[in-house]
Design goal:
Elements: E1 2-3, E2 8-9, E3 21-23, E4 42-44, E5 55-57, E6 72-81, E7 90-94, E8 105-116, E9 124-129, E10 132-138, E11 147-154, H1 159-162, E12 166-172, E13 184-194, H2 213-217, E14 223-227, E15 239-241, E16 248-252, E17 258-269, H3 282-287, E18 301-306, E19 309-314, E20 343-347, H4 352-355, E21 361-368, E22 374-384, E23 392-400, E24 404-412, E25 415-434, E26 437-456, E27 461-478, E28 481-504, E29 507-525, E30 529-547, E31 550-567, E32 572-580, E33 583-590, E34 594-602, E35 607-615, E36 620-626, E37 639-648
Parallel strand pairs: 1-32, 2-37, 5-11, 34-36
Antiparallel strand pairs: 3-4, 3-31, 6-13, 7-12, 8-11, 8-13, 9-10, 9-12, 14-22, 15-22, 16-21, 17-20, 17-22, 18-19, 18-21, 23-25, 24-25, 25-26, 26-27, 27-28, 28-29, 29-30, 30-31, 31-37, 32-33, 34-35
Length: 649
Amino acid sequence: MDFTLLSLHLFSLFLLHQPLYAAAAAASTHKTTATTRFRSELISHPTPSTGLSPTTYFEVTKPIKLPRTKPCSYLLLHHDFAYTYGKPPVLSNYTPPSDCPSQNFSKIVLQWRATSKGRQFDRIFGVWLGGVELLRSCTAEPRATGIVWTVEKDVTRYYSLLMTNQTLAVYLGNLVDKTYTGVYHVNLSIHFYPYAEGNFNSRDPNWNNHDSLANSYRSGADLILPISRNLPLNDGLWFEIENSTDVGSKNFTIPQNAFRAVLEVYVSFHENDEFWYTNFPNEYIVANNLTGTPGNGPFREVVVSLDGIVVGAVWPFTVIYTGGINPLLWRPITGIGSFDLPSYDIEVTQFLGTMLDGKTHEFAFSVTNALNVWYIDANLHVWLDKKSVKTEGRLLTHASFPPVVYLVSKFTGLNGSFLTSANRSISSIGWVKSSHGKVTTNSTQALTYSNLMVIGNDGNLQIVNQFIGFNDSVFATVPSSSIHSIQSFKRFPLYLYSNSVDQGNETYSLVTNLTLGFNEEKKSSGYGLLVSSLKNLQNAQGTILVKGNLVVSGLGSTQQEYRYDAKNLDLMWAFDLSNVGLTMKCAILAAKNLDLMWDFDLSNVGLTMKCAILAAKNLDLMWAFGLSNVGLFLLEGPLSNIITERNGI
């Protein structure tokens, strides 16, 4: 289908009036004890409840495309995360759905819903099933009047895992005492949407079989192996990488009839490396005799090895958690990726020839220039040939060289500039012979990086202008034709301005300006041709005035543009939605071969609108959207949000 532009322009003013903030003296469980300019240690002073409703926090993203079937829903876990830091993950027995009318599911959605009240830092957490990570996320920071937030993630790619009995593990390391009072009350649910014949939004129930080779490349894996730490633990199942020589690794074996393998890597960074892109070069730290200042410069990469051979790298997106830079920037809109941290796929089919020997092999993870601490684990997705007991393969070529990193420094005393740039490529070609024939896979990663850092005002001013280019491609061919290809072109721009100015009388102001972007273009073929593009951009400005250890005033303002466009060949739609003064109009400009019904509910603004279009042939399509939080959760397909929020004290 061809989706043309749908846009929504929205302006909302969100002023927060709160009493003075008190500086916290102690620990956040994923923050450094050494102060950094961007790690806020400010928490709200408790106030009596005024009867205000809890604030709803959310991350702006496109909604999950759901079938119109009624889901079979189950509560997996209810737990109050109070003092859980350094304690074992919360465990629960998981069994696949048995009482659902259908056992063929076209969509499976994991839902995290949590509330909290009081004062608390943001906390990183993870959800694992049988050691396979399903979700990496960050909590919202609570307020005295309470908060609530929901994360929904499409977990259909874990279909085979979700159809087996497993142990569910959730780790959220929280700390509660007389200062940090926020307890996170969590419900974790899962929704299974049965397949419906003739439903446009419903996947064929045979999507997970591999009768045809092309079908296998759009299906879920038959087996998903955890590349994570084993229980029991008093922490998350992730590996903890504490320095540049530290390595986290896991041994594994795969069935000897595998014909495809993809490694999905989860990454998050904390404490001294939470803001790694702002870290000073070591020569600057030494020359100025600085202590307690994170160093090793601003370049990081996650290196993935198989049996000691580098098979891929991740140059991660700069996720900013809900307490980062300036907490007032992230109320109620949170930073890009903060509620659902991105994972990164690395094709390793080319290396199956070395893994199909029935022996134990090892995946390992390290981080170039790392400081304490990075959390990394992975899931190995494996496709099996049901018509043979053994496949064979061979690695034909492999090229991987360390990144070429350049640093140009010019500084005098505490003032100066630093330009860091890097690039690398990793490529490999290998074939696998199965009942599908002899398939050759060619995979390439091409990565570029630049970071211009300016330090002025005797170290009180810092400007960072960073760009990451993360391109990868996979081509699978048989001797006669191409059967699958996917190309991804990611761009991660970041601009950060921070200036601390002495205002006299033991008072100083801190001004921050931020631009953060996650942009991606994808092209895939093999079962039709799909081209998609995503532009997700946030601009934020914040000011706080601090006297002694108290913030006496502050203001945060964030604007976000979210634009998603996807094109296929079988349908053409054009939508135009606008929102001015809390009114909305809906127009269908073009529709082809469908009966279409929409139902919109804008409950937060007391507005309900229904729009129905009936146009021609064969398909009966109904979508239902709940637009809450002033209409910010929008439609599948081409999508654009421009959102403004302001938070103040």
